[in-house]
Design goal:
The protein is mainly α. About 15% of the residues lie in helices and about 0% in strands.
Length: about 70
């Protein structure tokens, strides 16, 4: 089992399930009570993510790349 790879004619892939990613913040954070978060607006904040090799790491970096945050 692995995260779904990029499409490749040589590899057949079947998604068994889809996970959602959530933005978690401490209760006293200015982001805690928001229904939606603009990742670009909080790009200078510290974040914690699983390391490279985990499927969620790819989703995390892709979400921030899309928001224009390195």
């Amino acid at each position: 089992l692995m995260a779904l790879p990029e499409p490749d004619a040589e590899i057949g892939s079947i998604a068994l399930f889809e996970d959602e990613m959530f933005f978690a913040a401490p209760v006293d954070s200015p982001y805690a009570q928001r229904d939606a978060i603009d990742l670009h607006a909080c790009g200078d904040e510290p974040f914690v993510s699983l390391g490279e090799g985990f499927a969620t790491h790819h989703g995390f970096t892709e979400a921030f790349r899309t928001a224009g945050v390195a």
